[in-house]
Design goal:
Helix content is 43%, strand content 16%. By secondary structure, it is α/β, with parallel strands linked by helices. The longest helix has 19 residues, at 71-89.
């Protein structure tokens, strides 16, 4: 596992790595079901546009998120596509550079087993820095969610599958308002201790400013030993994006669907 140290700098990084989560985080909120073939086409087009790290789908219960009920079918189609693409480009010098890194979201051990069966090679788990949001979103406390994910990360380690972590509501909660940076740091550290190789900090409701972002990131950086990514969507200003690049590792997450 490669651990990337956090870097604080007043200058912009030479490059920024993007993790695109639109096929999962964007499409799961669509009121009408998006056909499997269209989801696959979207991911293929995102890759063609230059995005190499893409979160493809979520292995949540179809009862709770019906829009992701075809997660296995999406992964089957993508695995066939990447296999064909790999065989066609294996002899070119660009094959390694253009390798697609697909990940999937899993909420629990059952979802993990479904993801493994579907051929997932990288997974993501999610927790909240807000107790109120955790109870509303996944019907359990923060500590209960972390204990649930302990089973997932232990199983992932046994299968040799890397795990990304998400922390939501890092700059504010729609139910309880202000979220203390120390709470963000505690949850982030817990995900690190569970074995996450990378952690995304999400401003879920878009209330962050360069100032509040800086304070939060500085607090988190004291607690963890590796890179966090700042999650950004198109509602944020260019100044917020630039500040995130300057104050945390050069890794951004997008939802451009």
């Amino acid at each position: 596992m490669t651990i990337r140290k956090l870097v604080s700098s007043t200058s912009l990084p030479a490059a920024v790595q993007i993790v695109e989560v639109g096929p999962r985080d964007g499409l799961q909120n669509e009121p009408q079901f998006v056909a499997t073939e269209h989801k696959v086409q979207l991911i293929q087009q995102l890759f063609d546009a230059g995005l190499a790290r893409i979160e493809a789908t979520s292995f949540v219960s179809p009862k709770w998120v019906p829009s992701m009920k075809d997660a296995s079918e999406v992964m089957d189609a993508l695995n066939q596509w990447t296999s064909t693409m790999s065989s066609m480009t294996s002899s070119t010098s660009q094959s390694k550079e253009r390798q697609l890194d697909l990940s999937v979201l899993v909420p629990n051990l059952q979802g993990f087993h479904r993801a493994v069966k579907a051929g997932a090679s990288s997974i993501a788990i999610f927790a909240s820095a807000s107790e109120a949001f955790s109870k509303k979103n996944i019907n359990c406390t923060i500590d209960e969610s972390l204990e649930r994910f302990r089973e997932v990360t232990e199983a992932a380690q046994q299968h040799g599958i890397p795990v990304r972590g998400y922390v939501s509501c890092v700059l504010g909660c729609p139910y309880s308002g202000f979220v203390a940076p120390s709470d963000v740091a505690r949850v982030t550290k817990s995900l690190e201790d569970l074995g996450c190789f990378e952690i995304s900090l999400g401003d879920t409701i878009g209330v962050g400013t360069p100032g509040s972002t800086s304070i939060m990131l500085q607090t988190v950086q004291v607690s963890v030993s590796f890179s966090v990514s700042k999650r950004e969507f198109d509602r944020y200003s260019s100044s917020q994006l630039i500040h995130s690049c300057r104050t945390c590792a050069p890794l951004l997450e997008t939802c451009g669907y």
